[in-house]
Amino acid sequence: MKFMMWTASMLAAAIASGAAADPPLAKPNDRSGLYDAKTQTTNDLRRLPVAPGTNVPKTNIFITNARLFDGTGVPVRAVDLLIQGDKLVRVGEPGGEPPEGAEVIDARGRTVMPGLIDLHTHLTYVHAFGLPAPLSEESQAGAAIRGAERLRYYAESGITSVRDVASHGMAPFLLKEEVASGAIPGPRIFAAGQLIVGEGGHGTEYYALSTAPGYAEAAVREASGPDEWRAAVRANFKSGADLIKLASHFNQEEVDAAVDEAHRLGLRVTVDSETIYTRMAVDAGVDSIEHPLPRSAETVTLMAKKGIASVPTFVPYQYINSGGGYNGSTSRRFTISDERMFALGAEMKAAGVKLGVGTDVTLDGHHYLPEVYVQELRNFRRLGYSASQALVAATLTNAEILGMDDRLGTLQPGKLADLIIVDGKPDQDIEDLKKVDLVIVGGRIIVRDGRAILPPRIEEKAPFTSAK
Questions:
Q1: Strands, DSSP E only, in 122-219?
Q2: Of 11, 142, 351, 448, which alpha carbon lies 20 to 30 A from 91's?
Q3: Integer Cα distance of 266 and 275 in angstroms
Q4: Full-model pTM
Q5: Rounded to an integer, what distance in angstroms lies between the CA atom of residue 166 and that of residue 193?
Q6: Lowest mean pLDDT among 82-91, 321-330, 411-420
C-alpha cells in the first residue's frame, strides 16, 4: 500500500464525500489540520479541546520602553508590548499609547525577554532519603506541598515553564491544574508522571524509592517485558502525562514498545540512559536523551541524523563531582568527570545535536536557584555558546525540544504571554539573570520586585443573608 500525503484540501474532500479520513500525525503532538481556527485547546502537549476562555485571565498590560530580547536571534531593540488575556498581541515601536484601563509597566533600563524554561525538574522529590515513609513516598499531600514550595523558587528565578520528568503519583498533575487556573503562582508544568524503568533500574537502587507493583503513589514504576512497558505508558497517559520518561535498564523490545505506545498516544519520549541503552533508545526513535552519560561516537552521530535532542544537565554532575562522585548506584557504573561530560557535550554540539537547558536539582537543590540555572548557562558558554545563544537555548530551543515552540519560547504576537523583566542585559552578561524583577505567565503577573505574589482574593456575595 502506498503512503498517502494528506493535504487540507484532500482532508476536506474526504470528509465531504463521507470517506474515512485519518491523516497521519507528522510528530507526536502535531494537531495542525485537526482543529479549526476557532477551537481553543489546553496550552500543554495534550492539546485537549476546551471551552472558549478557559483559564484565560482578564489581563490588559502595556509594557513601555522595553529593551526586547525576543528569543528569535534577531538583535535587541526598543519596543512597547501589549498583553491581553493570556497572549502577547502587539510588539511595536516605542512611544505608543496604552489602551484605556491597561496596567502600564515602565521597563526603562531593563530587558524584557521570554521566560526561561527548565527541561529537567522533579517537583515532588523527597527532601532527603531515610525520612519516614508517611512524610515522603506514601503521602500525596506531602508531595504536593513540596512541589508548591519549589514552584516559588523557579518562578522567582525567571523560569516560566518546567518539564517535570518524574514525580509522585497525581501530585504533579494536580499542581499543574492549580497553576494553570491561577490559583497558585508558579511556572507552567509539563509533567511526565512516573519514571518507567526495568526492575532494578535507575532510581530503584537499594530500594531508595518505593516502586511496589501497581503503586500509584510512587515516583518510579518498574516494568518487565514489552506489555508491562506499554501498560506503564498508558497508565501515565491516563493520569494526564504531557510526555513519557523512561530510564535504563531495558531491552530493545521493551523500549521499542514504550516509544511506539507513547507516539501512538501523541506523547514525546525522553530517556535517562547510558552506553548500550542509549543506542537502544536512539534505535527505538525517542525524542530526547537526558544527562551527559557515556555513549559511543556512532550513537552521537545517529542522534544528530535522527533529530534526537539532548538535555545534558551538566550542573548536577558538577555538584556531585565536587562531593566526591556518583557512588553506590548500579545505573551509574562509570566515571562521570567534568572533563568527560564536557567532551561529550562538545562532541554532540559539533555533530549538530540540538542541546537544551535543564538543571535536575533534587533534595534541597532548588534553594540554590537561580544560581544553578545560571551555572548551566555558563556551561553552555564553556561549549562555545555566546551569552545570547545560551539564552536562545534556554527559551526557543527548549520550547522546540518540549514541543511547545508554536506557543512558547519567543516574544511574538499571538504567542502566550510568558515573559520576564530583568534589571540588566543578560544577552550580554548572563549573570544579570540573577536580577529578575517581574515575571508574567499566561498574562498573569506572578512575581513583582523579585518576589512571588499570591493572586488577589475574589470576594463574592454569599448565597445567604445572616439573621438580624
A1: 159-164, 188-191, 195-198
A2: 448
A3: 28
A4: 0.91
A5: 5
A6: 321-330
